[in-house]
Amino acid sequence: MKHLFSITIFFLSLSLFAQEITLPIPIESEEESVSLTATESIPIYKDCENRTTNLDKKKCMSEKVGQLIQSNFNTILDKNANLNPGMISISVIFKINKQGNVVDVKAKGPHPSIEKEAVRVIKMIPQMTPGMLDGKPVKVPYALPLKVEMTASKHLNKTNTIIDKSTAVYPIFRSCNEGFNYENAKRCTSKKIIDFIKLNFDYEMADRVFPLEQSTKFQLDFIINKKGKIEQVNAKANHKAIAIEAIRLAKRLPKFKKPGTIDGKPVDVPFRLLMTIYFQ
To answer: Which residues of the chain have a pLDDT value below 50?
Structure first.
């Protein structure tokens, strides 16, 4: 049985941080490009080579691209953007050329600074094994819709007090470096939580609950409290058993090395995670 984990929505912040990442969508061929549906072998992301089918390889690519964007996208609004913090949509198109490199990246968003950031992050995709048609490498175009929750360098807390992110410290997971700044601590902590869930999730139970399905989603919410412990755990899913499993895993998370702080004082930090689990 194979299991794939795709992060479709993720936010973790003293304010709100979210990204909705969908599977890169193949688009119609143009000029020398060949649509994904026409290729006999799709472009293969690094570390996805052992996946046997094109579907598995696409799911693996979705997971890897999602992790890359979540870890590297700068969600702090440019001070000249004249935009309010919140969820924004970005459309990105790019191609994987005959050498397996990302080329011709273009983005459409609400401000040039956000488009520039989207292009920057997509260009970080490592060299891939190119798509193949009739035994020859071909250029393959993709479209990638994104939703990202942007934040300001200063934001409101629950009491509507202005908080300067430069004075905030994100909760530190056990194996994360205490010397990390806010953004690096957030990235490390989020990755460790995701890895913990991926490692410990009961995939066989999910397969039994949904014998005719290939995937299911769940949303997990909890608070990392002032002592670095998990509390107020809630989950939503299409089946009670999945929600119970998500809650079980959240409650098993170890105590954090350090809680979140603002101006040196511990604070409660909300965490939300929406995941898609693939099982076959």
So the answer is: 1-31, 155-163
